[in-house]
Amino acid sequence: MKVTNILIVGVGGQGTILASNVVSYAAMNAGLDVKKSEIHGMSQRGGSVFSHVRFGKTVSSPVIPLGEVDVLISLEEMETARWLDYLNKDSKVIILTNRIFPANVTVYPEGIVSEISAKLTNTIAIDPKKYTEKLGNEKFLNIFLLGVLSKFIQIPDDCWNKAIKSLVPEGTFDKNLEAFNAGKNY
Amino acid sequence: METLLLSGNEAIALGAYEAGVKVGVGYPGTPSTEILENLKEHKDVYTEWSVNEKVALEVGIGASLGGARTLVTMKHVGVNVAADPLFTVSYMGVKGGLVIISADDPFMHSSQNEQDNRNYAYAAKIPMLEPSDSEEARSFTKLAFELSEKYDTPVFLRPTTRVCHAYSIVNVDKNKDKRVEIDKGRFERNLKKYVMIPAYARARHFIVEDRENLIKEDANTLSINKTEYNNTDVGYITSGISYHYVKEAAPDASILKLGMVYPLPEKLIKEFCSKVKKVVIVEELEPFFETRIKAMGISVTGKNVFPITGELSPDSISNFLGKQKETPLTINSKVPPRPPALCKGCPHSFVYETLGKMNITVAGDIGCYTLGVLPPYNGIDTCVDMGGSITVAQGLELTDPSKTYAAIIGDSTFAHSGITGLVNAAYNGRKNLIIILDNGTTAMTGMQPNPFSGETIQSLPAEPVNYYHLCKAVGISDENFIEVNAYKPAEIESAIKKLLATKKLSVLLVKGLCIIYNKKKSKKQ
Fold it and tell me: I need a labelling partner for B172 at 20 to 30 A (CA). Which of A63, B336, B359, B506 fits?
């Protein structure tokens, strides 16, 4: 069984850690070996952040080798472009087209989504505004994206549900599950 | 059996708890911080954030001599601070097991240098274990306590960032993995072992040398030094996270995995090397194994192909093996960098803006405020180590007494090792402007309380150290101590001008809660 590699990237404070925890727990609930690698500390202060999640029968390195990402989830548009070395021609890319300006940057680079979509046909760009309205709150967007992810990887629904239930704040499970299912039906 | 997904740090805390640890002390520092934060959840373990790493180790030595199994946690550069007691406790040995965590940070994800602390194991003659994932982080911690008591020595555990902050599966058997209760009795007077005057220390040094030789011999059969024989064309000698990189890139290779990285098992290494055609050493940072294995008369491949700087990765091994990869995808859009920065809305950014306008040379320090060096502030001119702002400013003043040099330091860093610098400035008649940015917490490492924040690690109330009285005690007059609100830039500016005009040692205390901490606190309430 080949190891599945999920890379979740974004900007500090966007919730990459919760999202990667949900994926990891879902895989663990499915009885798989799981490893996850991220960096805490200085890099979280508004810088680029990432979380590598790997699962399968047995996983060695917690870090994904270059060119071996199966699905890249990017919570911010230009962050997607920093991780191209990890992709291959079959990689799937899910981009939330959020635009967060780095300090001292006034012009946002254009054309990132179209360039990546042109090269990787499995690219899905999701407009956060549209779905924030539908889901009721932007807090549910990341779980919505995991719903989209769930279509590309083989983890049973009950394992996802259990993972979401154990990790999201109390009282928000129903709304999060709704968001997950909306993503699944995207 | 319960299956858990734990970070290396959570697993170290679990291992220590299961080993019956009674005392856990340390100073926050990435990537070590979460160890004590997890250990504190166990109410039958005493935990504390000590003022700094030297203090933590000394408290730990006392607890060990009092019979308690004791865990002391710090990041790699923290061991520099603790180095004074470290070298001597090696001579004294222990009563309750004493395990010191040195969490190393190859690539300096959140550090000012990437020193390889295996060198401390060698220099202080203290055995060192190196886990490669969370299950090992847990089991090696337990083993470290056993070895500490067996050989009467402190023991190092050296996880690196990619072990501390990587998550992997840990299986806990509630019946089998119960906490062990070790009763070593209380402190017993033993002058020749615990009082290191020259005459007694000389005798202890012989014991240390014998101990090291014994551990080195036993390392040949130690369970965590493991050989895996497969294809014998190449044999890899490796440890820690690098082991998994080798397994990833060369799953069919023969491997000698060193769980104990110091002292090295010479017989086992020689035996392994005799069974493979070529020996490749895969280690991050310094050629620590390589130097020692070459000295055994074995020719190896190592730092001639792998870098000394930064981290390794599975790709380091694949590249060495000449594995071909697809050409990576590229796009034409240019993406600007996104370095970490002072948080948007950080109340302490006003100070940098003000200093920027006044063209003052500023010695900086470690913590969030180091980020003031980045645009748009470019607000500090030096950053060396914890507490180094106040003292480097003093040295600068010596070379140009006509100018005033400022120092910027946070509350936790000031408690850690800024206070000694303040005393030095007062004692030696300096006139620096010391600016303390108090955000109510140790923010960079994730909001730990400190001696100025009025709370212990268990969130119990503590008497906060009083800045005013502290400054008064070292001889700073009322005129030279001003406290301002971080949100009032005009007052900050006029206070700086006023203090500079006195041409005397001054302290400006700027108070403004960390915005992340504030958000967390209001969520709790």
Answer: A63
Chain A window 124-183: which residues touch B at a Cβ cutoff of 8 Å? none
Are A68 and A52 in contact, with CB atoms under 8 Å apart?
no
CA–CA separation, B293 and B405 (whole Å): 49
Chain B residues close to A79, C-beta within 8 Å: 338
Token code pair at residue B251: 């799953």
Residue B496, Cβ neighbours under 10 Å: how many?
25
Q: What does the mean pLDDT of chain B come to?
A: 96
Q: Are A80 and A72 in contact (CB under 8 A)?
A: yes
CA atoms within 13 A on the CB side of A171: 0
Write the pLDDT tens digit of every residue in A96-122. 999 999 988 999 999 999 999 999 999
Packing angle, helices A173-184 and A157-167, rounded to 10: 140
Helices marked H in B177-287 — which ranges?
Answer: 191-194, 198-218, 240-249, 266-275
To the nearest whole angstrom, how far is the Cα of B342 from the nearest Cα of chain A?
7
CB B467 within 8 A of CB B435: no
pLDDT tens per residue, range A118-146:
999 999 999 999 988 888 888 899 999 99
* B340/A61 CB distance under 8 A: no
Q: Is A79 on the interface with B (CB under 8 A)?
A: yes
B436 beta partners:
B409, B509
As given in the structure block, the two tokens for residue A112 are 């990132």
- Evaluate whether B87 touches B120 at the Cβ level (below 8 Å): no
pLDDT digits (tens, 9 = 90+) for A13-56: 899 999 999 999 999 999 999 999 998 766 667 789 999 999 99
Does the beta-carbon distance from B168 to A78 stay under 8 Å?
Answer: no
Question: Around Cβ A181, how many Cβ atoms within 10 Å?
Answer: 17
What is the pLDDT at residue B328? 85
Tell me what the mean pLDDT of segment B16-43 comes to.
Answer: 97
Kindly report the CA angle at B290 between B288 and B293, in degrees rounded to 5? 110
pLDDT of residue B510: 98
Kindly list the residues from chain A whose CB atom is less than 8 angstroms away from the CB atom of residue B333: 81, 109-112, 115
The predicted pLDDT at position A43 comes to 63
The CB density around residue B511, as the number of other CB atoms within 10 Å, is 18
Give ipTM to 2 decimals: 0.95
Chain B partners within 8 Å of A89 (Cβ): 326, 329
Summarize the confidence of residues B101-110 as an average pLDDT.
Answer: 96
On the question of pLDDT at B520 being above 90, the answer is no
Any idea which fold A4-97+108-184 has? Pyruvate-ferredoxin Oxidoreductase; domain 3 (3.40.920)
Interface with chain B: mutation pick from A38, A60, A159, highest number of B CBs within 10 Å: A60
Q: What is the mean pLDDT of residues B363-369?
A: 95
Dist. CA A41–CA B116, nearest whole Å: 19
Task: Give how far B9 is from chain A: nearest CA, Å.
Answer: 12
Q: What's the confidence (pLDDT) of residue A42?
A: 67
Domains of chain B: 2-221 (3.40.50.970), 225-320 (3.40.50.920), 349-524 (3.40.50.970)
Cβ atoms of residues B517 and B447 within 8 Å? yes
